[in-house]
Amino acid sequence: MDCLPKSSEKSLRGLQPSFRHWTILDYSRAYNLKEITPRMVAERFIAAVHESSNPPSQMSFFIDYNAEDILRQADRSTLRYEQGNPISILDGIPIAIKDEIDCSPYPTTGGTKWLHKVRPCTGDASCVKCLRLCGAILVGKTNMHEIGAGTSGINPHYGATRNPYDISKIAGGSSSGSAAVVAAGLCPVALGVDGGGSVRMPAALCGVIGLKPTFGRIPHNGVLPFNWTVGMVGILAGTIEDAFIVYAAMNGQLPPDQPTRPKLYFPLLNPTKSISDVKMAKYAEWFNDCSDDIRTCCSQALDKLQEHYSWKIVEVTIPEIEVMRLAHYSTIGSECSTSLSSHLEKLKPEEIGWDARVALSVYGSFSSKEYIKAQKIRNRQMQFHMKIFAEADVIVSPTTGVTAYPIQDDASETGELDYINGAALVRYSIAGNFLGLPAVTVPVGYDKLGLPIGLQFIGQPWSEPTLIHIASAMQAICKPDYRKPEVFYNLLKKD
After folding, report:
1. How is residue 223 annotated by DSSP?
2. What is the rounded CA–CA span in Å between residue 201 and residue 171?
3. Quick one: which of 17, 91, 107, 351 has the most CB atoms within 10 Å?
């Protein structure tokens, strides 16, 4: 913990933030000082989930949560603190898990009504096991877009996850519930899976951190095999420090069948010891292909980085971005269709939402030749990007091309396929998945309606320490201007 800042109370500008999320360190300090217990936090969490699941908000945060199991975990954690023997800084911390990741005692539905029946959950995924061993309280399975095949986070079976900043707006997908529970204060951290921006998009729309590590950094055992070459477990958190703690915790012992990864390094997150001479690559034409509010906000955020740290912008061109997008779509669609093909033919049409049926129909139309061609494009794009990384430390862009948009009246029952907004949401996410690059989104402001805007940093493989450090610097600048969501639960409040 020595690499973390000593306090999250003040920003780089020395100002008290108008709003901030309770952090893992806040929970840990409160437990150690006996100001509150994990049992009390668990009781407040359960009450908040119950309240949020009913009118008027009907947030649809979770697909499943088990109050008895949550309280059982909390009681064990409380006892450890009473005995002065917490397992780790994560002991007693509520963490939510996207329903694409195995976590006992819950079935893993993938946002469907049928998948858990043909693929039962037999234990924790490797990443979840690491968190459980650290003493975290695993509080349930968060809502998601059905089979991850969409960007809105609207699920016809389990409800439309609503944005805590405006409940009439989408939370984003596919890790919608994970982003929303963090934004709403129910958990400091949640896990998602990112195959096409599915962690970073909802994180940006809900005003939280979204970290997608390098492909292969976090073990993938126990994650639904929707997209095995582009999907990656990611972290959604209220602060970059919390994302970093969970990232480090999940880098535990690898299963014996997994390849060896590069050594894990931890950055020193101290605003007074910032990395010097950072070069940020910006492709202006691509960067500016977003709404006016996003373009202005993200440009101003970059200006502040340059002003505070004297970091430099390197103007670059990223060739064939549209070709890469289509190749990624062919890849993720082919892999999803193949992984589910043996089950789909046995299903009745009404068992799958309308939007997922359309997506699967498109996915099933891709040929093996198209898939192989896409992999050749992948190699070519990696060469393009590595040339850019020879000149710059990171590539910078908005996280999404639009902010959260309204949930249509009938979408909660049918699902939604909005290709115009969907294309704008996914526009900046592709390289992180198709090339396996690490990426992080940081909230940097709001549009005219008060909806959050995220700025994304993309790094070369295994450069998470640099990304986390840069994200911390950006967060320190923006922190004084963070706003409290419309829906927010204060689990550490003093009675």
Report:
1. B
2. 9
3. 91
Output the six-digit token pair for 256. Answer: 């014996």
Asked if 422 and 151 count as a contact pair (C-beta separation under 8 A), the reply is yes
Give yes or no for a contact between 233 and 223, defined as CB atoms under 8 angstroms apart. yes
Catalytic residue among 8, 152, 174, 175: 174
Domains and CATH numbers, the chain: 24-253+274-481 (3.90.1300.10)
**Residue 254 in tokens:** 């690898």
- Respond yes or no: is residue 369 known to be catalytic: no
Convert 204-224 to b/e letters by CB count within 10 Å (16 or more is b).
Answer: bbbbbbbbbbbbbbbbbbbbb
Residue 128: C-alpha distances to residues 137, 218, 221, 240 (Å): 11, 11, 10, 20
Query: In the annotation, is 141 catalytic?
Result: no
pLDDT in tens, 404-444: 999 998 777 777 878 899 999 999 999 999 999 999 999 99
Contact 251, 265 (CB under 8 A): no
**Residue tagged active-site, from 52, 126, 198, 472:** 198
Whether 52 is catalytic is: no
Q: Length of the chain in residues, anyone?
A: 495
pLDDT band at 16 (very low <50, low <70, confident <90, very high): low
Beta bridge partner(s), residue 160:
154
CB neighbours (10 Å) of residue 62? 24
Q: Tell me what pLDDT residue 10 has.
A: 46
Per-residue burial over 236-251, b = 16 or more CB atoms within 10 Å of its CB, e = otherwise: bbbbbbbbbbbbbbbb
Give 387-400 pLDDT, tens digit per residue: 999 999 999 999 99
